């Protein structure tokens, strides 16, 4: 009887410690100040995302934050085992934005958030001043994690509601954007380089 009781208590202990608690919040104001947590299902870890997009020409200034349990198999953007943080950041002159992804595996650890880093890092890339520019030769100062010059060379495919039409796109991007972007997509051929003004076509 004592053996069964000991096994029951031991199994209850392991079940209780295996249920991870994560903060839960969704905010379109960029302010996730919460103490509310949720109990995660098995094979889930804690995650947080901060997404910022700015388009001054269209009066867009959005920052969204989300904290929740995430399925471990959906964590491919981080490729994490325990705790990891990853920034995606790009600026194509007309609009710019960033995304922070964070995951961790202890209770309520997903409080971390990240905002667009506007500190110049010294790299300069070519960009466009407007959606209608035929030649993009303006010089853009890259900021934060944007350590590559970016060019997206448009193909013959036309995308409705795409503000650039069939024009090329130039600007700054983080290594994470360059590594994750497919070399050929519906948006065009993506090229990244490391030197000043190297994204000249």
TrEMBL record:
Signal peptide: 1-19
Highest rank taxon of the organism: Eukaryota
Alphabetized InterPro entries for the sequence: CNF-like_PLA2_Inhibitor, Snake_toxin-like_sf
Keyword Secreted attached: yes
Gene Ontology cellular component list: extracellular region
Coiled-coil ranges (or none): none
Subcellular location: Secreted
Protein name: Uncharacterized protein
Keyword tags: Secreted, Signal
